[in-house]
Task: structure prediction
Amino acid sequence: MKATRGPIPTRRSVNQHAAPHLTEAVTVSRFWRNVSVGAPDECWLWQGDTSTGTSTGYGVFFYGGRMRPAHELALSFTTGEARTDSFDTCHACDNPPCCNPRHLRFGTRQSNVDEMHDRGRGLIGERSPQAKLTNADVKAIRERRANGALQKELALTYGVSAAHISEIVNGLAWPDAEGPITGRSKRTQRTPSSTRRKAA
Ligand SMILES: [Zn+2]
Result:
């Protein structure tokens, strides 16, 4: 061992000498290593620590001196926008660990609540709360789905939930509209309102 060197720098003293934008870049790259990044339309699941308590299932990451929701950081790191207090980070896919920025947006608290209560009624994206799909939209959605479009992609395009797209393509929603019905076996075909769904 050489005794001529100065004190071994601690992690803290190293960080103090690093340029701020470098430490930020390191943190951001460390963040994304916790995300299972998939195809653009897929849910990108958080692999790191998750929250407990009332918001169980959401990823958390230490940033800016405190634990922060991972999905919020995913959106901020991608868009450069910071969430302000009156906004929530909303999932279009209803999948708490998802960190795919395409599935995320900052929305008002009320719109987030409305969305949960009114799934599939066009609160996502640019559509107004009152906007509804048209018969032509439904027909196009079914045709695109039959041609291989992903449900999540269609959900983002038309501003409705993926769950609602699923209901549309299997004919549970918009039963009178045109377009090919897919993904629905004869066994599960619904008969007029009398049948109760049984647990499998
Ligand atoms: Zn997602």
Notes: The first helix runs from residue 11 to 17.
